[in-house]
Design a protein that fits this description.
Number of strands of chain B: 0
Largest interface: A-B, 57 and 49 residues
Shape of chain B: globular
Order of helices and strands of chain A: HHEEEEEEEEEEEE
Number of helices of chain B: 7
CATH topology of the largest domain in chain A: Thrombin, subunit H
CATH class of the largest domain in chain A: Mainly Beta
Structural class of chain B: mainly alpha
Distance between the termini of chain B: 14 Å
Largest sheet of chain A: 6 strands, antiparallel
Number of helices of chain A: 2
Number of strands of chain A: 12
Largest sheet of chain B: none
Oligomer: heterodimer
Shape of chain A: globular
Helix content of chain A: 25-40%
Number of domains of chain A: 2
Order of helices and strands of chain B: HHHHHHH
Chain lengths: 283, 179
Amino acid sequence: MHKFFSNRRLVFIVVVLVLAFGLMGGSVALRKRRATPPLIQQFGNDVVGIANDIVAVPVNAVHNGLASFSDLLNTYSENRKLKQQVSDLAQVKVRDETLAHENKQLKKELKVNHTMTDYSTINAAVITRSPSSWQKQIIINKGQTSGVKKDMPVMSAGGLVGRVVEVNQTNSKVELLSDTSESANRFAIQLDGEGGKTINGIITGYDSETNELVMGQVTSKAKVKKGTKVTTSGLGGITPKGLYVGKVSRIGKDDYGLAQKIYIKPAADFNDVNIVTVPELNS
Amino acid sequence: MYRLSRLRFLFPIGLFVALFLDGSLSKVWASLFFSYPYNMVSHLVLLWLVLAYFFEGNIKIPLTWFAVAVGVICDLYYSGVWGLFIVLYPLIVWLTKTLARYFSDTFLNMILIFFVDLVVFELLNYWAYYVIGITHASLGDFLVDTLAPTLALNLVYFVLLYWPIQSMFTKALAERQHN
């Protein structure tokens, strides 16, 4: 044991520790500030992303095959349920189109060009997920070349799932809403309280015990009903307005008993994300 | 002589398959691995490195350098935060070598060493991310929600993959001696 901490080894260990923490701290800071990672990192990630397909494509194919087999077993009962919804949906769709058309005409009348609800979408497939318990990240197969930019929101089948945190040329990293780190996922959201009052707020955290998003520091005193739909509010200027987040599951008080704390059951399953949509504001 | 053995193909290919399988399995079985509130971290890379050390025989694979390489890829591709895995993987290789000196090469001893490796790896990973502010989980939560499930998963990996990997290595080594 005396020899274990010999001078040279001690110096070596200290240097490695300092370097490692310097790099970690530096890259975290760099990541928050810059729109894209350094070129060398981009290049490396693009190459690795392509190599990843060699393993990811067969694994995903097997998984999709098994999933479609189990889907097949549920098809009959699902089909009966869905048929009822389809007839409703056609009506909703037509109405939606009419309203969108009317909205466009009215905007023209008022000479408003683009608002926070005008967005186009980029579709991407999920390649892989970070094998980590601290960073809930997925990697998608679209990057700068397809128009993905840092901080864009990411939607899955059900609703909002996360935000783009790093963009390479051909792939990008998405931080899921279930990530609990301090810098993660502050989406501006809104919901309708009783009496038609709009309650604005931000997602302040994620409760992993119950799988609920937390909307904290809600100063509005308006009453909120369970089951109210929550959408993004478009405040902040990067995320379009009206992306579905989830439904209110319960309402509590914050630690000091002053403000409301609204718990939201997310619409998307963060553990079952295969295809994502990245909405991009038209400007 | 690593350069002349068939391990020079088998080992790197296995390492990179393990690396990408870690990610792919985390994605495909996400609802199993990350069911609230538990988190299982797939460590096939670690398993491959440790078993390679035990099965390499008299061929010395440059494990530390491969560990550095795989650490760089993990840092850049999976986490996006530099400087953690590039240190952790070589550290675990060193730890395995050190521990292996004191134990004979039996299955139970190997699984014990792998167990210690996993605990050290996860603990340092948690500590580093705690220090730079990526996580704020308490130590208790870490032990119950992450470490315990991760150990369970990876020890299952170990038991399932021990014999297949062993036979792969024996085959690769045996054919070298025939030539």
